[in-house]
Amino acid sequence: MEPLWKLVYLLEPAPFTLILTAVAVTFGSAFRALNYGKDMERNRDMSEATITLDRSQALMIPVMSSCSLLVMFYLFSSVSQLLTAFTTIASASSLYFFLSPFISHLKSRFGLADPHVSRCCYKPFTRSEGLLVLLCSGIVIAWLISGHWLLNNLLGISLCVAFVSHVRLPNIKICAILLVCLFVYDIFWVFYSERIFGANVMVSVATQQASNPVHTVANSLSLPGLQLITKKLELPVKIVFPRNLLGGIVPGNNSSDFMMLGLGDMAIPSMLLALVLCFDHRKGKVSASPLDIQSSKGHKYIWYALSGYTVGLVAALSAGILTHSPQPALLYLVPSTLGPIVVISWMRRELTELWEGEPPNMNEKVHLIEV
User: Fold this and answer.
1) How far apart are CA 30 and CA 288, in angstroms?
2) Which end of the chain, N or C, is more open, meaning fewer C-beta atoms within 10 Å of its C-beta?
3) Confidence of residue 46 (pLDDT cuts 50, 70, 90)
4) Where, by residue number, does the polypeptide cross the bilayer (predicted)?
5) H or E segment to which residue 119 belongs
6) How far apart are alpha carbons 138 and 83 in whole angstroms?
7) What is the mean pLDDT of the chain?
């Protein structure tokens, strides 16, 4: 156990940037989910779909995640190129989803013309959409070639935002089931898997690098510039920051190591933030802009959840520094986010409404798929 004064290393560039990034991603993901739902309602767009989890699906997520962990633990080298190919497609699609609001904002701000140039899948395809496709493809190709950690983080953040926008929680009851199950899941695979499988399964999978199919193809064809293509890739299932970022080094670790945080440790709490933000919007008519949220009156569950997430994340990183061992982040994040929401809503006599969720609306324009 390290002395408490070593917690000052949380102010080092790497952990401080990791905390700021994670908090910003969870905050932004919740707003993107709210805006995405409102856009679908406004445009009556039935081509896009959100998935609303029910109780059985919430219970199955930790089970399926455990099966996936074991497959990657035992067969990662065999399926790594397939995983890379799948991740490449998912990352390009998520990056397009992530960047499209910024392109729309630029068009409206500067009054840019955006003529239709083609049709794709029975939908008009505009010039800006075509350019965005090229941009996203270029970023993904650059990641495949270089494997740079900044590009990895960008793709990981995009995946997180897209997931939170498309997968919804209907109420706090389902949210509590999901979070408690993942709370147990995270603790088991980090603390107890080594006793059964002979190694820390979660850490082993999180730190494995996938084979780069681009390098494999270039090598087989003896293409020029092979030395510029990375052989191994960090898949964008986590955000990473070098421990020596801007010259800062957390003691006890090699300067070439990375600090990392899994996407699940951002995406799962973000689902709770998105849920309470939608509740805030319903009750207080909160504007779907981070800059205007302070205009809300009385219903600010988003701030309690976001503050709790920050406290939980700092606690998880602190525990890692003091114990020099990997920590299951959800061990700290679940109580620090779900707890305040339940307690405060009970004090406000709104727990029942949050617990059961909004009653189904027969005129709902959003296309919900129960899977």
Assistant:
1) 10
2) N
3) very low
4) 16-37, 58-76, 82-104, 125-144, 150-167, 174-192, 258-280, 301-323, 329-347
5) strand 116-120
6) 20
7) 85
> What's phi and psi for 210, nearest 5 deg?
-90, 150
Grouping H, G, I as helix, E, B as strand and the rest as coil, residue 198 is coil
Distance (Å, rounded) from C-alpha 159 to C-alpha 165?
10
Enumerate residues 6+ apart whose C-beta is below 8 A from 276: 301, 302, 304, 305, 341, 354
Amino acid present at 269: P
Beta bridge partners of 125: 118
Measured CA to CA, the distance from residue 46 to residue 276 in angstroms comes to 25
| Active-site annotation holds for 265 | yes
Residue 22 banded pLDDT, cuts 50, 70, 90: very high
Catalytic member of 39, 45, 54, 265: 265
Tokens of 240: 């990473």
Radius of gyration of the chain (CA): 22
pLDDT tens column, 116-158: 666 655 567 778 888 899 999 999 999 999 999 999 999 999 9
Q: Give the SS3 label for residue 152.
A: helix
Do residues 348 and 23 touch, judged by C-beta distance below 8 A? no
Token digits of residue 156: 């990981």
Contact 213/235 with Cβ under 8 angstroms? Answer: no
The full DSSP string for 206-262 is: HH--EE-HHHHHHHHTT-TTGGGS-SEE--SSEEEEETTGGG---TTS-TT-EEEEE
| Identity of residue 295 | S
Strands 368-369, 50-52: parallel, antiparallel or unpaired by DSSP?
Answer: parallel
Tell me: the pLDDT tens digits for 328-355?
999 999 999 999 999 999 999 999 999 9
Percent of the chain with pLDDT over 90: 55
* Both structure tokens of 270: 């973000």
